[in-house]
Design goal:
With about 400 residues, the protein is of the alpha/beta class. Helices cover about 25% and strands about 25% of the residues. The chain contains 9 helices and 21 strands. The strands form 6 sheets. The protein has a 7-stranded parallel beta sheet with strand order 11-15-10-5-8-9-16, sandwiched between helices. Strands 18-17-19-20-21 form a 5-stranded parallel beta sheet. Helix 4 crosses helix 5 and helix 6 (about 295-305) runs parallel beside helix 9.
């Protein structure tokens, strides 16, 4: 059930506004409106609230929803930076292809930038059947106002059934902006996407309650169905050379006031940035290191294996290493060929970010550490003795 204001009966008298215990009623011009604070206490249905009987309870289906039959195709936001496609966009094309096959529709990429049409063939080769392309000087650098306007206009015109974003800094910012404009929902940080065979709805699964359970969320009455997906969770399709597809150029125009923020300068971080998402080998350290100096040993092993250094949240929170190295639910989700966990107990938040690795090696003093439950190989012992012996063996 839901509460509805009957606009034809509302006289704009404002008598109901101070009476709502939740403060959910407000005026928009001469019409009373109901805000999201409403918790369905039903007190507004009492006669004293509205002498004109302009407030009523109705079935939720009467006030919510769209004609879902008008929406089709799976869209992937093709995130690019400095003319290079982000790996997560290619992963989502692979996942989008699977979803589209189950629904019986096309997978499409939407690409925004200035003069980046050179990326379109790559999108075709990684699975896109259609590429929607928007080019303008205002799109050269990511700006939430300009990108939201372009995507919202495209969504309103072409009506995609599903829209997927990478859970990057840009995707986590842009996705909710577009969802608000489209008056639909968005499920963040999904780790699994499936199609309900009964009614073809998108089932969006993500960790909940600190990763202690997995929640599957659906959006039955609104479109598009929107999700952000963490990098490294899905798999890219094998690149199909010379594959082509359809290109649709979007009309782009901005009126004064459309773009409220101006990007004055982009300052690259001067500190070393680690690329965990694309790494094939990751050696991570945790609280078991005991101190920041322990990461010097981790770095030696990572260099020996041709990999990069990762860390658990405990090590980052202790200030031993920068957050850019953090693996886990609140860090980066990774999927390397080899993951070596050193002094990491295996909290569920950390496991959620690395358990899809091809091979996991765990080194820990406690033989009951949860990390051993997901490890392919486990070494019980002091990492300060095990790692040097490990490197000697590699030599």
């Amino acid at each position: 059930m839901a509460i509805r204001i009957i606009s034809e009966k509302c006289k704009g008298c404002e008598k109901c506004i101070p009476l709502c215990p939740q403060g959910a009623l407000y005026m928009e011009g001469k019409l009373a409106m109901l805000g999201p604070e409403c918790n369905m206490c039903n007190q507004c249905l009492e006669p004293k609230f509205c002498p004109f009987k302009a407030i009523e309870k109705v079935e939720e289906e009467e006030v919510l929803g769209v004609d879902v039959s008008l929406y089709k195709d799976v869209w992937v936001f093709a995130e690019q930076r400095d003319g290079k496609l982000m790996n997560v966009s290619l992963e989502l094309l692979g996942e989008g292809k699977k979803l589209a096959a189950e629904i019986g529709c096309r997978v499409c990429a939407i690409l925004c930038g200035e003069n980046v049409e050179g990326l379109i063939p790559e999108l075709y080769e990684y699975g896109a059947d259609v590429v929607y392309y928007a080019s303008a000087p205002e799109l050269k650098t990511y700006n939430p106002d300009s990108y939201t306007k372009v995507l919202n206009e495209a969504v309103q015109k072409y009506k995609p059934d599903i829209v997927l974003f990478g859970a990057t800094h840009i995707g986590r910012d842009l996705g909710p902006c577009v969802a608000v404009k489209a008056e639909t929902g968005l499920t963040a940080d999904c780790t699994q996407l499936d199609i309900d065979p009964a009614d073809k709805k998108l089932m969006q699964t993500r960790p909940a309650f600190g990763g202690n359970l997995m929640a599957t969320i659906v959006c039955p009455k609104h479109r598009p169905q929107m999700s952000t997906v963490r990098p490294g969770v899905m798999s890219k399709l094998e690149r199909q050379a010379h594959k082509t597809g359809e290109r649709i150029d979007l009309e782009v125009s901005f009126a004064p006031g459309d773009i409220r923020m101006e990007v004055l300068e982009i300052v690259k971080a001067v500190k070393e940035i680690v690329s965990l998402t694309d790494a094939e080998v990751i050696v991570s350290g945790g609280a078991g290191l005991g101190n920041a100096e322990g990461f010097e040993l981790i770095k030696k092993l990572a260099d020996k294996l041709g990999g990069v250094v990762g860390a658990s949240r405990a090590a980052v929170d202790a200030g031993w290493i920068d957050h850019s190295h953090q693996v886990g639910q609140t860090g980066t989700t990774v999927k390397p060929k080899l993951y070596v966990a050193c002094g990491i107990s295996g909290a569920i938040q950390h496991l959620a970010g690395m358990q899809s690795s091809d091979y996991i090696v765990a080194i820990n003093k406690s033989e009951t550490a949860p990390i051993f439950e997901v490890a392919d190989y486990g070494l019980v012992g002091d990492l300060y003795k095990v790692i040097p012996a490990f490197m000697d063996a590699l030599n």
